[in-house]
Amino acid sequence: MPEAHSDALRPRERILLAARDLFHRHGIRGVGVETIAEAAGTNKMTLYRHFDSKDDLIVAYLQSVALEVDEMWRDFERDHPGDIPAQLKAWLVCAEECVTSDERGCELANAAIELTADNHPGRRIIEELKTNHRNRLASLCRRAGISQPEVLADTLTLLLEGARVSRQAAGSKGPSAKFTATAEAVIATFKAKSKPARRSR
Known about the structure:
about 0% strand; single chain; Homeodomain-like_sf
């Protein structure tokens, strides 16, 4: 990913990159627009030329995260066309990377904690993205022929969310280290339920 101050990027892109980095490291409310502008190699006047307010910048930041998540799902389909079990495995690999590679936790969950006003436009983006992600996972489980796909999707979602919080609180050697093994065991259990019971002779 290019640096936020790279001359190869347009001012709006530099500002978004800087905002995303600072929001993730210090929190949305812990960073002001002046700090973001400085990190982007520009000034507040330029920032407000591209974004009407800090809230407008927050919305653009969350939308950029949503676009990355959409691209992730498209990658699963492109890399494993028609192979649903492989796509589910790819999701698991991606989820593990999210848990192990980022001690700051989920950007969306962190943002939701800070955006307490129900009418903040950022909350709608977060809720829609989280719901869409869960529904896509349920669809993947359903197409894999797994029993109770919605319940499995909810279970995996809760497991992932919990693992990311555990990574923040207990470090990399805490319960989050067992995320993949636990998720695989959960999937195996649901798969076993999908198999028809043998008739006794």
